[in-house]
Amino acid sequence: MTQTDFLVLLPVILLAGWALVLMLVDLAVPAGRKHITGWLALLGTGVAAAGLLGWPRVGALTAFNGLVVADGFATFLHAIFLVSAAVAIMLALNYLPRAGIERGEFYVLLLLTVSGMLLMSQAADLIIVFLALELLSIPLYVLSGLARPNLASEESAMKYFLLGAFASGFLVYGIALTYGATGTTGLNGILAAAAQGGPNLLLLAGASLLLVGLGFKVAAAPFHMWTPDVYDGAPSIVTAFMSVGAKAGGFAALLRVFLTAFPALTPQWALVAAGLAALTMIVGNFAALAQSNIKRLLAYSSIAHAGYILMALPAAGSNDAAVGSALFYLLAYALTTLGAWAVVMAVEKRDGAGLRLADYAGLFARRPALALGMAVFMFSLTGLPPTSGFIAKVNVFQAAIDAGYVWLALIGVVTSLVSAYYYLRIVVLMFMREGAGEALNQPALNLAVGFTAGATFLIGLFPYPLLQLAQQSVLAIVR
Q: Is the Cα torsion angle 99, 101, 105, 110 positive or negative in sign?
């Protein structure tokens, strides 16, 4: 291992190493005081962030003979992953003991799955993509069943594991076909081989199976069927992080793989990706209309937003700004969604009650600040100004239009109007209906809601520094 190799993988090494040490430390932490493990895990995210300081501000570093890369694209995604993990840990400090599932292994598994996400954004080889995907997924399978012996939690873990393993089979088969067509699994090597020999059926089949495998991870239709049941059955804190981290990790690989390795096949896969984006937006938004459970509603919302982000993939074939728009959307979505789930955890009761939409009636009268925060999140998910969600959608739609996908942007606008019904219904319940019930008042949870709501609002008012940073980070992608 050279110094460059070490530097490029330093954030992953720090975070995964911290998780392994934390697993041993947790053995000495008595039951009922697992918050100590949580605070140490929170410190670990900061240590991993410090590993980014040695990365280049301009250009890129490759390591291990081109297997992994450190560039602006990975840096931007690392920031999303680590901030999301920090917010999730803050929420878990209260949620786990209240739900009766305070276990130190939660924090260890969370750090390990974040390590997989970090590696996913740096992967420059299909083998590394697969290894990172498994490192991301396996801890999430376990976390989904954390509330054992709760049958719903165990069922969600089993469904996620079985369908995830099935999707991994598609990914591995796609890697095998791609290797058979090009003789390499390196993204740059695939690019060079495809440019020399031209597109062929075997390479196209490999790219198609890769799209299926990664489409499962981002919950794109028709590979989304696992999402509602898993989100509903898993503990809310696990669902909150899964809806953000797993999706962002999947898009990290999807964008880098297809824009780096398969530009020669763009005329073939771009139209397929556009069709998947349209189908995902339609299925997610229309299915959400019928939901009366907040967790299932946010599950279908997550599917719909995967469609909006997926719009950037076909547009990126002829418009580099589309990738920056997708990264900005991921940031806005992460902050908004984590905030919304924080409010869900505040309203949820220990016995699993408090998850019906009707439970949000009169929330403004009971907890005004919490209701205002939830309103900001619902406005952002709808795409209303002046929130970050509005800026994110405008930029993705503009990228699609500039690339010639006007019809796709129109579907995005129409489905956004549909989404206004179920998002604003929650706002109406909170502010215009009477209801009984309680909502948790806890400092760490309040801080998380305040931070995410403030960030969602401020980024909507002053989006251009982050939007410009997202656009600049794309320029450093190794092609």
A: negative
